[in-house]
Amino acid sequence: MMKYAVWLDGIILDIDLTDMLLRQYKGEDVELPLIDKIYPDWNEFKKIFKEDIIIVSPYNEEKTRMIIKKLGDFPFIYSDGKTKPSKKPMEVLFSSFSLDPLRTIVIGSSPLDLLSIRFYDSRVKFVCIKRKANCSKYSPYLQVDNLMELVKSLKRLKIEGN
Known about the structure:
The chain has a 6-stranded parallel beta sheet with strand order 3-2-1-4-5-6, sandwiched between helices. The protein is α/β, with parallel strands linked by helices. The chain has 7 helices and 6 strands; from the N terminus they run βαααβαβαβαββα.
């Protein structure tokens, strides 16, 4: 079975934290804003892959738990201060859930999401959802416009779990 590690910001929540996360990565003290707006395609996607989704959050534990409570019961990891493009979130993800890099797809929406996984293990498939940024110059495994387009692409490629 494939597992799907889904970045909370940019995929589930309609927010682009790229600039703020990059500043945070460089050592600046940045307070990440929270929003409640969820992309509409998330609800359909989660119905299809519910058992195989792990949420990756750039927020601290308290904020992440608050958001997850609204989304439903999903396993998740949160940031302890160092987030994308660091490989640390991926180290935590893969060790906490004993994931196989060859049976995991990371779904993100920015080049920082892609770099985070590439710094960890280049064998992991990364899918870029073109919400606000284009990841094509970084060669994602797939790049699609929305999560339902991703479902169709995964079916065409006969990737398990859908």
